[in-house]
Every structure is written in structure tokens, then in C-alpha cells.
């Protein structure tokens, strides 16, 4: 029972949505026949329901965060003072956002209206921290790439050369380096070559990947809808 | 140099994060834990006010629309919205081990919704439209003067052959020897070029963020540039 009901839910919801894609036409509205109305409702509202579930997933994540860090603080585990930072910032932002502090009076207006403290939190904490953390990856991506793509095989060499040409081609340095080439050899300029890589072999590769993904999505969807998968969690 | 407290805090946090380049240290750990707390809280708040409030609470209790906007028209009540709210509450049962199996129901709904929406969309945009975009221009590309544009024709030929070869590489059910093996290997090389280009874009996006942070430090904070 614990496994049957989730499988039935997955199959029924998936099949109904797939059928609705064929039943509902763009112009259908309140005047359509009742079966079309039912599919129309499903087609328009299940994505909203999905969004509501996504918010509950955030709430679950927040609750899990609280549970773990409170436990860490209470048991004085290693690095527990940092958990206090996480807890204080989490609860602080929640209070600021849920009560819309600093904005229009009461709960009126948007949570990010001018003057709202949540906007200050975004501009002063969330945005700089996020940008700096992602910017930090620039250094690690570069060093990881060096280790991974050293000229060890033809494939890794091609990947490295392609990446190098595209990177150089998008900077003034790439243009400057190949400025000496005569007009008749213009196709060998790094910036021109970079554009060619992006518009021909890159497009060919990306299209093949997208087509492969589509075939994979169809196969996996049919497998799960037939109850052969274990997509809803638990042991396989 | 800036006199704004917000900019000083942002600059300090940026430097704390960058200090990880030296090695893991208390300043980095502080910034990291702060980011975890702030981002979790921020995303929950945004989810509550942008999704849960208008799509669930207002539809269940229409007068709630006046809480955020006193002049708002009251929408019709939608009792069916209790279904996702019930499923959402089941999701929270994940925190209680004895009842955590009930959290599979909302997960099953989410999986079914994703599959249902994505199957048709994926077939249309990733399969049919990609094939159409590959073959629709034809092999012979005309120039503006009416003749054959040989460069464009060669590029189109490479595009069609490259896509076919890369697809051949994804066919794992046949042995990769002989002519077919050669085609698949050519496809692998095409894929490597595409991966290289994607990698370059990933690096560029990170470097853009880094440049943005440096501009903030040197410009907005220190006023040097």
C-alpha cells in the first residue's frame, strides 16, 4: 500500500496531463464541453498546485535546517557557533519578510517594495554573498579544468582547444592576437573561429544532446507511468 | 571611499568569501553559514508571498486579498485548492520518521506533474523542432545574388552530418566497430567541441561575476575606479 498509492498518483496525474495536452486547444475557455472543461482545469491548475507543493518543500527545507542546527547548538558539536549564525540569519530574514517590516504599513504592498527591509537584506547580504561565492568558482573551475583536460587524449585536447578558442574569441585579446592575419585568411582569426565553433559544431552537438534528452524523457516517462520506476522515493 | 553601511557590510562579506582562496578560515565559514541562513529565509519568504499567499490562501479565503491590497477585487473561492495544501502538509510529515512514508504522496504528485507537462513539451521542442531546425534550411544555401553560398552550404552540411554523427554516438545498442564506429567517433569529437564551448561559457559567467565583485570593491566601496 505504501508503494502502490504513490505509483497510482504518479500514473494518473501524468496520464491526465498528457491527455489534456491533446484535448485542450489554445482557444478553449468557459464555453467548451464539460470533459474539455475538466481537462482545461487540470492543464491550467496543476502547475499552480505544483508551485504550492514547491513552497511546502521550501518550508520542509527550512524546518530541516532548523532541526539540524538547533541540535548542533544544543549538543555543542564542532563549529556550533556558526550554526548560531545560520539560525539567527534564517529566523531574522523570516521575521523581516513574513511581517513585511520596513515597507508600506501593515502587510500591504509587495515584500520588496522600496524601503522594505527584505530589499536591504537582498542588496546587502544575499546578492553580494551569492555573487562572491559563485565568483569564487572561477578559480576552482580553472584549476579543475587544467587537471581534467590536460592533453591526455584527442577528445580532451579538442575540448580544451574549443574552450580556449571560445574564451579567447570573446575577449579583446583574441582579436588583438590574430590582427596580423591578412584579409584573405580572415576565417582563421580567433574571434571569427570562435563564432564558427559556436554556430556550427556547437549547435550540432547541442542539437544531438537535446534530441537524445527528448528520447530519454519519453522512455523514462513511459517507464514511470507504467509503474516500473521508483520516482516517488523509497527503495528500488 | 563609501560612507554607506550597506556597502561596507557587502564589501566585508565579499572579502570574507574571497579569503577562502587562501584557505578555509573562520571568516569564510561565517560568510558561508550566513549565506545558508539568509538564502533559506529569503526563498521561503518569496515562496510564501509570491506563491502560497495568492494561489492558496487568497483562493481559500478571498477576503485575504484585502490584507495586501485594500482595493483588490475579491476572487471566487476555490475549495479544490485544499488538495495541494493537504499534499503540502503530508510533505512536512517527512520530519516524523513514523509517518514519513506519507510524504511520498506529494512527491508522487510532483513527479506525475513534471512528467505530464514535460513529455509533450520535450517531444515538441527538443525533438521535433530540433530536427526541423536541422533539415529545414536544406543543404544548398542561396546567396543574396541568387547563386549558391558555398560557405553557408558547407556549414549547413557540417551541421547536419555533425548532428547525425553525434546522435550515432548515443546509440549504445550496436557495437562500435567499422564504419559505424567511425561515425560514432566523429560524433564524439563534435560533442567534445560542444562541451568545450559550454565549458568556456561556464567559465566566462563565473569570471563576469568575479569582475562584478572586483568592480564593486574598487568602485562602489573604495572609489578607486
Question: What string gives the helices and strands of chain B in order?
Answer: HHHHHHH
- Describe the oligomeric state of these chains in a short phrase: heterodimer
Give the distance, in angstroms, between the N- and C-terminal Cα atoms of chain B.
Answer: 11 Å
Helix content of chain B: over 70%
Low-confidence stretches of chain A are none
Quote the average pLDDT of chain B: 91
Count of alpha and pi helical runs of chain A: 8
How many E strands of chain A? 0
β-strand amount of chain B? under 5%
User: Element order, helices and strands of chain A?
Assistant: HHHHHHHH
Which key terms come to mind for this protein?
heterodimer; A: about 240 residues; mainly alpha; about 0% strand; B: about 220 residues; about 70% helix
Give a verbal description of the structure.
- The complex is a heterodimer of chains A (about 240) and B (about 220).
- Chain A is built from 8 helices and no strands.
- By secondary structure, chain A is mostly helical.
- Chain A has a domain at about 155-225.
- The longest helix of chain A has about 40 residues, at about 35-75.
- The two termini of chain A are about 15 Å apart.
- The model of chain A has no long low-confidence stretch (mean pLDDT about 90).
- By secondary structure, chain B is mainly alpha-helical.
- Chain B has a domain at about 140-225.
- Chain B has helices at about 5-20, 25-60, 65-70, 80-90, 105-135, 150-170, 180-220.
- In chain B, helix 1 (about 5-20) crosses helix 2 and helix 1 (about 5-20) packs across helix 7 (about 180-220).
- The longest helix of chain B is centred in the last third of the chain and has 44 residues, at about 180-220.
- Chain B is extended.
- The termini of chain B are close together.
